[in-house]
């Protein structure tokens, strides 16, 4: 570790320990040079890091001061740069346990069959089988009727594209992969929020991309000022994010934050890849607009991609997703054709038949109501039976809970297995160690008497820890 990074680390520890209190003036560059026996250059670089990461701020002609809200600013992980991602092996090892069919899986973000319109989908497949064209490859960009439906709905949501600016894919993960392939090369840097969906790290590792993590901060979410500082320092090629109900913490970025991040990204020529798979599952108000809707769309400027699928609303097994882009779909479609000729034609036609029934919005209304109710019920039960020993972050949408405890998440997974259930440890959702005391729960498992009993047993694990 370089001298200035070590000095910055030492000063962070002093601030975190309370050696310097909020709004307190810290030693000047010259003073810290004498106190720490370092060069002026080392002191300047260390203070630059502290200022960028929000630990201190400068007042002209007065000096450096500890940030007035330092207690909230240091609650998240530090900004970190990773020249390489090595996550797949560990993720696969944990996910094998999370997906164990012998366990009740509260860890995988997969909607329960009870909340999916499976009867309607089966009927739609029967109708689709009546069309002879299902046995051909179909349109290389995806079923025209399905793309037309997505175009109309996406435009209503604030991102106005036509059907020719949409590519059908095999799920949202593939959408994100092809979007990244379209605008990056191995060795490029991508900036991502932390925590974020675990599967993105596997994509980043496979594409050999460098990563900068920007943390979610308490109350404020993603800081646009912090984002701009990281952009200036690391010069990322892409910002990869979920603005609406981020998995795992369920946070919805404010409209002001979306506008600010879009403005900064465009100014510095950064491409946007947005995962909007949970955007329809809001609890209150109206459907939030995607961040890319605030991004200027110019052919010569940076590109934006809106990625989603039907996996969280109709069925994960359908494996039909899409990418919408006003300026980048041609290059993306070219990439998809290099890997396959077309998408699953029967499934596309079956989905389109289901959407023609005009029951999709009614189904979404049902999901939003049920998932909101389940998050409330889970939160009350967990809080009561753990006797307040859990810090539960209430989501703005989706169907997962993000929870902090005194237990290590990986060890908690082992303990939960003993009572016949599985959770997703927080370490899956970031490259740093900050989320090790967190875990994610899927509330769409439901709230039957059996599920309720499992949750009560699980909650009491934290009582044992506290009393020991």
From TrEMBL:
Name by which UniProt lists this protein: HTH-type transcriptional regulator NorG
Cofactor names: pyridoxal 5'-phosphate
PANTHER family membership: AMINOTRANSFERASE (PTHR42790), GNTR FAMILY TRANSCRIPTIONAL REGULATORY PROTEIN (PTHR42790:SF7)
Keywords: Aminotransferase, DNA-binding, Pyridoxal phosphate, Transcription, Transcription regulation, Transferase
Annotated family: In the C-terminal section; belongs to the class-I pyridoxal-phosphate-dependent aminotransferase family.
Keyword Transferase: yes
Domain of life: Bacteria
GO BP: any one term: alpha-amino acid metabolic process
MF-aspect GO terms: DNA binding; DNA-binding transcription factor activity; pyridoxal phosphate binding; transaminase activity
PROSITE patterns in alphabetical order: HTH_GNTR
Domain HTH gntR-type: 1-69
UniProt xrefs under InterPro entries: Aminotransferase_I/II_large, Class-I_PLP-dep_aminotransf, PyrdxlP-dep_Trfase, PyrdxlP-dep_Trfase_major, PyrdxlP-dep_Trfase_small, Tscrpt_reg_HTH_GntR, WH-like_DNA-bd_sf, WH_DNA-bd_sf
Keyword Transmembrane helix: no
